[in-house]
Give the backbone structure.
Amino acid sequence: MAQTPKNHQTRTESIGKWTVRIRSYQLGDAYICTIDNVSPGAVIARSTAATRADAESEALAQAKAVIA
């Protein structure tokens, strides 16, 4: 049976000169986070972890490495 995403959260932040959109949600027991560069919306980082905080932290670290 397919799992349904829940506990969606979306926000924007700045990393250096770039505005990024951070999206996270729960899928089963894991949290998934993707970060895109608002315009044109290309995903630049993604992560899966046991908590939302860990998933977002890992994805933000990846995004900072890509953008820097």
About this structure: Strands lie at 6-15, 18-27, 30-37, 42-49. The first strand starts at residue 6 and ends at 15. The helical segments are 52-67. The chain has one domain: 6-67.
